[in-house]
């Protein structure tokens, strides 16, 4: 077996590591999905140049490599590299979490901290949190042991909560591990998950006014530190730029707006200008149902249509890097707002009421410009709750697309 650089783990479809490492232009980096039964052979006989290691192998891999002091202290390895003919193991997650914590402005000193999960990432996080002089640290685990609290008996007065479990990771992007309503004293939530951008846990924390951070800063900082072990070159000065580029690149661009405002037209133009794949949720509903939208409304009613729309949104919005045109009423259901926001930048298309197309659109067909203005007044708060940016659709579609791309770039700075 011959391997270059890459990420070793069991299930890796969610990982942005190849994107980060390949962006450095210094080496080729791939994904090595290996089953537990094949791990020993991979570690002993694979002639790879260097590895990152992720769940569930960070502890297991320790037996195949020469550990440095930080890996010994944490008892887990996320970076494997060759030096002086020896296969060595270190831990750059430590460095990554330190970076995340300082960027987040969350200070654990004198706070009650609850860490969810007891795997490799949990040990790393705990070691850093303990060095910050917290009031108390609790680790929640499904394993029964004196050192852990159980999920049935979590400390409800925790002030900082850190999720180190994979719960909420793509493709199970809508799963959540706890309900923050039970934690009245909680001020800040860190979720090490980075795909989706905002897990349901982070979206809830944001709504409750808590400070939040996802796992992207940690992912990028640990990757660049690993790259130093792989190549002997320094890459840290690129950390902030890569975080920003990654955010813009991986988020979907979701187009929202009134029926007939140009969501599909402009969405296609944005996809053409960026090389992204375009998907229309309405077209997907029609494909799945085998009927047109007016037919679905006529035979099953609006609620049934909205349920089909929600199922389609859930499937599409958890993907990355797409342009997604939604139906005009998709923002009306509260659950859809979170589905749209979890991994996307939302762009609202605004168009003069007199120019809105109404033909074949069950909720606006036959309505005057005045009626449509009333409809917008009723819906405006829903569009506002979801949108990141808005753009007037009063130029050629290609020009409107350029405005959107430009606004997204400026918005992410
Ligand atoms: N910038 C534009 N210039 C010229 N025509 C446009 C522009 N934007 C949209 N249109 C036209 O307006 C009509 C409605 O556009 P489109 O179907 O893209 O709207 P939509 O918001 O996707 O509608 P729905 O709510 O039904 O999904 C189409 O005939 C489209 O060609
Ligand atoms: O999901 C990923 O790509 C990774 C996650 C962490 O385990 C990191 O330690 C690993 O290097 C890469
Ligand atoms: Mg459309």
From TrEMBL:
Keyword tags? Amino-acid biosynthesis, Aromatic amino acid biosynthesis, ATP-binding, Cytoplasm, Kinase, Magnesium, Metal-binding, Nucleotide-binding, Transferase
Cofactor note text: Binds 1 Mg(2+) ion per subunit.
Record's catalysed reaction(s): shikimate + ATP = 3-phosphoshikimate + ADP + H(+)
Write down the EC number. Answer: 2.7.1.71
Places the protein is found: Cytoplasm
Cofactors: Mg(2+)
Which top-rank group of organisms is this from? Bacteria
- Supply the SUPFAM superfamilies for this chain: Aminoacid dehydrogenase-like, N-terminal domain, NAD(P)-binding Rossmann-fold domains, P-loop containing nucleoside triphosphate hydrolases
Q: In what residue span(s) does the Shikimate dehydrogenase substrate binding N-terminal domain sit?
A: 7-80
The family database entries (InterPro entries) matched by this protein are listed as: Aminoacid_DH-like_N_sf, NAD(P)-bd_dom_sf, P-loop_NTPase, Shikimate/glucono_kinase, Shikimate_DH-bd_N, Shikimate_DH_fam, Shikimate_kinase/TSH1, Shikimate_kinase_CS
**Recorded metabolic or biological pathway in which this protein acts:** Metabolic intermediate biosynthesis; chorismate biosynthesis; chorismate from D-erythrose 4-phosphate and phosphoenolpyruvate: step 5/7; Metabolic intermediate biosynthesis; chorismate biosynthesis; chorismate from D-erythrose 4-phosphate and phosphoenolpyruvate: step 4/7
Residues the record lists as binding substrate: 282, 306, 328, 379
The entry's Mg(2+)-binding residues are 264
Q: Which GO terms describe its molecular function?
A: kinase activity
Principal place of residence: cytoplasm
Positions with a binding annotation for ATP: 260-265, 361
Q: Which HAMAP family match?
A: Shikimate_kinase (MF_00109)
Provide the function of this protein: Catalyzes the specific phosphorylation of the 3-hydroxyl group of shikimic acid using ATP as a cosubstrate.
Q: Which PANTHER family match?
A: BIFUNCTIONAL 3-DEHYDROQUINATE DEHYDRATASE_SHIKIMATE DEHYDROGENASE, CHLOROPLASTIC, SHIKIMATE DEHYDROGENASE
**Family stated for the protein in its record:** Belongs to the shikimate kinase family.
Quaternary structure, per UniProt, is: Monomer.
- The protein's name: Shikimate kinase
- Species: Gallibacter intestinalis
